[in-house]
Every structure is written in structure tokens, then in C-alpha cells.
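Let us work through a complete example step by step.
Step 1: write down the sequence.
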Amino acid sequence: MILYTSKFLKVNYLELQYLMHFYWTEYAGYMDEEGVYHEFLNFLDKRIYKRAHQIYIDWRQTEHLVSQETADWFIKYILPRIVSHKPHRLGFLLNDARKISLPDTIPLKHGQIAARLFTNPLVLMQWLMENAERKIPGQDNHDHHHNDSCHHT
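Step 2: predict the structure and record it as C-alpha cells.
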């Protein structure tokens, strides 16, 4: 399911895997850092709320804009608004994984999320889905943000 699309950024949601996949288009290579921030904020303003246990960020088209400050901004301002109450894993795909550094885990309101940098998309997906919860087709999964009054049994 496509949650957001623009000329620069596309966000897909794989419902059965609770996976949110961000990827920059070839046009994103012409943006500046402010454009990256703008696209993420546009996504937050317009997106459909879904449970996201796994987050996949493909930075390859905008790698020239990726800095430690960009990654830190994403983790501080964007990540807490897109993960679910059961954060699992966050994977960044780069051509050069030495551009930024991430802690092994990132604390969030509802737990912590493991974080890794990758240069191979297949290895990234294998890691994201390792021991991940999966939705059974047709099962009621409460695909919305939870508040304290919503409990699963």
C-alpha cells in the first residue's frame, strides 16, 4: 500500500510485515537538505496511520545530503512519530555506510528500536524481518495509533 508519494519521496507500507519503506526517487538527487526535511514533514502531515514495527529508509538517491545531523534529526523528530507501540528494527540503506553512525538501539516512548546501516538491500530486509511479528491475513490488527485505553489480549 502506498502511504505517500511525491516527485521526490515514496513511502510504502507492507501490511502483513508491519514494514514502512521510505525511498527517494531519482529526482531527489536534485534536492538540498531542506528539501529532505520538507518531504519527511509532508509525509507526517498527510500519511495514513499504520503500525510500523520495521522501518526501512533507502537513502541512496539522496546520499550526498545525508549527514550525521540529518540522521539525528530523523531519529529525534520523525522516527518517534512513525513507529508503533512495538518498535522492532530500523534499517538505513546507503552506498557508503561510513557516512553516519548510529547507536545499536534507539530509545523511544514505547521501548527501543534496534538500528543498523546497510549497503545491501537484501541483507537489510533479512535483518529487518528476522523474528518479526507478522499479520495473519484477515486478522483484526487495530491498524491505528494506540492510546493507553487500547489493549491487546
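Step 3: interpret the result. Residues 68-82 form the longest helix (15 residues).
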